[in-house]
Amino acid sequence: MGISLNRPSLLTIFKEYSLMAFGMFLYSFGWLCCILPADAAGGGATGLSLLIYHLSGGVVSIGTMVLIINAILLVIAGFVVGWNFGVKTIYCVVVMSVIMHFLQVWCTVGNAGGWIADMIVARDGLSLEPGTIVDIFNLDNRLLSAILGGICSGVGVALCFQQGGSTGGSDIVVMIVNKFHTISYGKFIRYTDGVIISSALLLPEIGIDGVIYGFVMVAVFSYTVDMILSGNQQSNQIFIICKDYKAMADAINSQAKRGATVIDSIGWYSKGESKIVMCVCRKRDQAMVLKVVNKVDPEAFITIGSVMGVYGKGFDALNKV
Question: Which of 94, 142, 156, 283 could bridge across to 23 with cysteines, CB 3.0–4.6 Å?
Fold first, then answer.
């Protein structure tokens, strides 16, 4: 018997990829229309692309550089840790790069395709040099622009994480590094973002004030993602009581790509023996795990607890605390 694709499953797929595309639009909008006009620095692959953009005098498209950097990282990761990235990660990287490219074209003054820039210049009576990225909101305040950019990009990334996607960049680098040396994800991101943002001190277009705004943007970005993904905890512990614990554990392993542990239990009201499927996952993976649980058993009893620290394979190393 072949696998049938019913209407709800197709609608679910369409919804997930639509939300990821919208999330990548918000992320790109935050960078191109808020952070870049504020001459602020940033972290990750996009922050590195922003540095290259300034070094090249604006010749290289930020979206193009994001795609090139992520493509190189994906190829390296493929040879080092295997070719098992999700299709969603590749989809998000491509969509993000395309949106960034076109936003840069549309919002550049004096560009043949810069219709948004021309419209804003005419609306506000601005006098800008050709090649300038317009501030769509005309905030005239670099700090506010950096904060708004952090909020927009944070909401976009959170939407992407909730649908099981990833923006690549630092996530891929952490995956490569952990193949040889276990390192905390949070610490690695802080270190790499710090190095990339601090490197902007060498660029006169950004300067020390742009670096400070960059750190403010990263702080706002991180807080926004944490708030949307339910709290500041790094990981969540999920207990699942269901009818078919074997099918549930197998589905979490194969579909959510997370580990599962089966624990013996007794329901004291019924005095009947049962099994609890326990799954510990990163907070950004919680929505994906719950979707798998709902698919296997919509009537499953679930509890979710925030875990302040998780140490071991696939998480943080105890000696790195």
Answer: 156
Q: Which residues have C-beta within 8 Å of that of residue 267, sequence separation ≥ 6? A: 273, 274
- Asked if 175 and 89 touch (Cβ cutoff 8 Å), the reply is no
Q: List C-alpha distances in Å: 65 to 4, 49, 98, 131, 188.
A: 40, 5, 11, 18, 22
For residue 199, the tally of other CB atoms under 10 A from its CB is: 15
Rounded CA gap, 101 and 95, in Å? 10
Residue type at position 66 = V
pTM: 0.70
- pLDDT for position 3: 44
Tokens of 130: 């050709």
Vertex 96, ends 93 and 102: CA angle to 5°? 140
**CATH numbers and ranges of domains, the chain:** 7-228 (no CATH), 235-320 (3.30.70.120)
- What is the pLDDT averaged over residues 139-155? 88
